[in-house]
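chain below, 171 aa
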Amino acid sequence: EDCAKPLEVFSLPDAVDFLCKVTKQQDEEAAENLVEALHCYPLALAIAAAFIVQNPGTNMAKYLALFECKKITLQQKEMALVNKGVLDNYKETVKTTLELSLNEISDLAIDMLNLMSWLHHENVPSSLLINWLAKTGHDPDFEFGDIISTLKQHSLITNQADDRYGMHQVL
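prediction:
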């Protein structure tokens, strides 16, 4: 039995509206160009918007240029996979936006994200993450809040009930 769900995407007007609201930028032409490049994929749009917000010198047009440059670099590295159809445009789009954000965060934040990816994508208890930090020789009192804040600011994790965190299941 096939358990795959159809991929939900924003309509073009909803995606442009989302991007303009989240980034607080009103350049609808630039927003539309970026939305089209990101194929209206909500996860890619959320990651791109978070990147733009976290990097005040970056507007939507500049992000699109960064995205296109990173996309070309990744395509060159993975051309065989693209040609075989292994890497479709959703994976390519999300991977490119994710790569841009991962380049902006600390190695420790990436390590925590990797740990979370091995767990269920929902309801990861903060106590588990705090214990992991302590067991890896880090000071949870000093570093936990900064790491969580960074991951949330980049739309890589979300708050959930009872001091728990979640992430998109694609990550």
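Residues 26 and 145 are 32 Å apart (CA to CA). The longest strand covers residues 158-160.
thats it, cya
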